[in-house]
UniProtKB/TrEMBL annotation:
UniProt keywords, alphabetically: DNA-binding
InterPro entries documented for this protein: DNA_bind_arc, PDCD5-like, PDCD5-like_sf
Top-rank taxon: Archaea
Family stated for the protein in its record: Belongs to the PDCD5 family.
Protein name: DNA-binding protein A6E15_01035
Region of interest called Disordered, as start-end residue ranges on this chain: 1-56
Stored NCBIfam families: PRK04239.1
Length: 116
């Protein structure tokens, strides 16, 4: 540096700008890696479901996910855990899927209103 105050300020601003750009680039790479891992996990989940569910059972599960997303995710996790533990013999058909949905269905509360 030549020592002039304007040049020093200019160099300092350039350095700050480079640091900001580097930080931004690192953040984007971190998000991209996380997103890629999430997509890979989603693909593995779909492959396991495709392997262990019949077409009708998959349609029923997709219908449940459309109406109740959290419950659908819970059912998917249950099917995947059953498949990984080896407790599924053959494929889950529509009837078995209905039975599984009934077992996992949250208890519905009934309200009895009595008037006096």
């Amino acid at each position: 540096m030549s020592g002039s105050p304007d040049e020093e300020k200019l160099e300092e601003l350039r350095q700050k700008k480079m640091e900001q750009l580097q930080d931004r680039a690192e953040a984007q790479q971190g998000e991209g890696g996380q997103e890629a891992a999430q997509q890979q996990a989603e693909a593995q989940k779909k492959a396991v479901l495709r392997q262990h569910l019949t077409d009708d059972a998959r349609k029923r599960l997709n219908t449940v996910k459309m109406s109740k997303p959290q419950f659908g995710e819970q059912v998917e996790r249950q099917v995947i855990s059953l498949a990984r533990s080896g407790r599924i013999q053959g494929k889950i058909d529509d009837d078995k899927m209905k039975q599984l949905l009934k077992e996992l269905k949250p208890d519905s509360q009934s309200f009895d209103i009595q008037r006096r």
